[in-house]
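Per reviewer request, we include the raw input and output of the structure prediction for the construct analysed in the revised manuscript.
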Amino acid sequence: MTMKVLLAVSILLVGLLQYRLWHGDGSVEEIKAYQQRLNELNGQVEEKKERNEALYAEVEDLRKGQDALEERARDELGMVREGETFFQVLEK
């Protein structure tokens, strides 16, 4: 009788532990979901780092050289130098 009770308790304990492993807090599914979310966030961080590096390089160009500043003024603002004539070609 004691062996049967001990066996039943052992089986119940193993069953509860298996349930927690597969469906409870910190389960295998939850860990996989957290790992996937972590991978997504790491990808976003890498994208932001690349964007920041590009912006930093652009800022450095603007600080150091007038060429980059002039290029931006011409492209974005449509500015021209003194003595230049601006021609705009319209296509239909």
